[in-house]
Predict the structure.
Amino acid sequence: MPSGSKDVPQKIEALREQVRYHEHRYYVLDDPELSDAEFDRLMDELKALEAVHPELITPDSPTQRVGGKPREGFVKVPHSLPMLSLDNAYNEDELRDWERRVQELTGESHVDYVCELKLDGMSLALRFEGGKLALGITRGDGTIGEDVTLNVRTVRSVPLAIPAKTLTKAHLPADFEVRGELLMPLGSFLRMNEEREAQGLPRFANPRNATAGTVRVLEPNVTASRRLDFFSYFLLVNRHTFFERHSESLKALQTAGFKVNPNHRLVHNLDQVWEFINEWEGKREGLPYEIDGIVIKVDRVALQQELGFTGKAPRWAIAYKYAARSGETQIEDILIQVGRTGKLTPVAALQPVLIGGTTVSRATLHNMDEIERLGVRIGDWVLVERGGDVIPKVVKVLEDKPRGHRHFHMPERCPVCGGHVVRAEGEADHRCVNANCPAKLRESIRHFASRGVMNIEGMGDSLVNQLVEAGLVKNVADLYDLTEEKLLTLERMGKKSAENILNEIENSKKLPLERVIYGLGIRFVGERTAQFLAEAFGSMDAVMKASEEELQEVNEIGPRVSAAIREFFDEPKNVDLVKRLQKYGLKFEGHKKERGTTLAGKTFVLTGTLERHTRDEAKKLIEDAGGKVAGSVSKKTDYVVAGAEAGSKLDKARELKVAIIGEDEMETLMKGQREGA
Ligand code: IVH
């Protein structure tokens, strides 16, 4: 052992304590002491030490938030005590009725209440054992939830381990349960939806759905990337409320390092409750997450116990629901908005109406399916709702009001550029297929120039905007037509910067064919698909000429992707664009890569944990040998490669009598390929 290594365990533990302390300052208190770079340095130091001493890695180390392997599904777990819901009050009268019941049943005329924000996420139970996070469970049906521990571990405001001295300070034992709300802040929600839109995936309707979707994805690194937050509001020890007052529980949770929403208040009568409700009705707009009301809880636990429960809800708490911010108005017209992916969104132009203090004159109708579902016509009176930061939407037609007479139809041509509008089979959205459509222009240029694509350093948002506004760039090919003279007409553009940009543009011509294909921004053609296309066809020409059937012979390309590729190259404007890129000298030839053939035509499904390869590695090996890897077992599956803890796919394989092989057999198959190739 090298000298000094005796200190390593202590050193690692000390570093962990530091990282935990600073994570808490940053993610729970919102009050960091270190810069991001300083924090990263600490984390890197810890990672480096753990890399040299993997035997010292423990699951509660802050480096281990994203761990574990993708799973097959979630395990059901019973709750220690049912997770209840709340009764609602929708106005002051209902709230006063509730107070009267509380007073009658307890015989108390003065009751203290805690007012909390009703966070619009999903409730979650966290069990801690020995001060460490042992289990995270969704609400499920209230009695049985799902074990989502691996995903919960990625939420940075959830502590993985609480030091003994902190527990002592909070007067908490080492085993307890915390309940609270998991939510997606609006910023993360908007960013995630933008990314989904760019990938051709459907948007989540609201942050609550997005939270529920995110906590149930099977890959913890996806959950980690979506930045959920967790606020604690309930504490159980041995299945009982531990402190004498709810307000003390909140304090203890905070002391123990949990994030407790700071916007709560201990009040002494219902007038003060009402004040709190009114105060937040106005302030809720400014919050970085959505709330849909205020939760009022009787503070003294002894009184809570006297009050007990009715059916599914406690009598000692109530949710005051803010009125959905909605208004009634008339649709004057239905317009089309073209998004950056070319999606055509029908938007209702409204007779302006005041909703929750904001004048609303536009509301989204999403797509044609939605218009049909609502049965909406131009001239109809409708109910419009507005939530947080989300675009107002038409909720329903008011049928007792005079009906409109004009039916809306999607245009066949894009209203911005006149390009063809198509709706692919099985999809809800209509899209403009013209790559030169100005609405798509900015985004397509950003994509083309970005790192990992054509890598044109310096082509940031502001330059792209300027180039588009000045009319210097109308499609990505125009980038190669830029000159120093043209660039110098832009604001804040010096000779030196212009030179740099032109150099960068020139250098991009050296990048390989797959980057050019990727850069075109064809729907569903990401980095990997572009790579497969370049390898399979060897040239841009061949890709452009390929039929849907030929395209589908390529790895991972199915009917949806092949249709998108064909659609792109069937648009004459896109063909012109590509020809120009060729003229400017971009790489249009690549290297046809002959993939192995032993596994050609064979479809594999991977399940469980393999010993020698990660799933990605195994997938790549199979693909390199010409095989295909599918996500689920069907009659078309040739082999299921099963590792440790294989789950339902294995059962399915047995049921369908698909050959089940291990890692060794998989490697034997590959070897056969290599020798034979
Ligand atoms: S207390 C028995 N407090 O609202 C106590 N719930 O409509 C039950 N919620 O399922 C929960 N913010 O998901 C409580 N500050 C808060 C809350 C809150 C949001 C949610 C929770 C619950 C639902 C009931």
Summary: Residues 673-677 have pLDDT under 50 and may be disordered. The radius of gyration is 29 Å. The chain has six domains: 3-64, 88-321, 326-422, 438-508, 513-583, 603-676. Residues 12 and 49 are 7 Å apart (CA to CA).
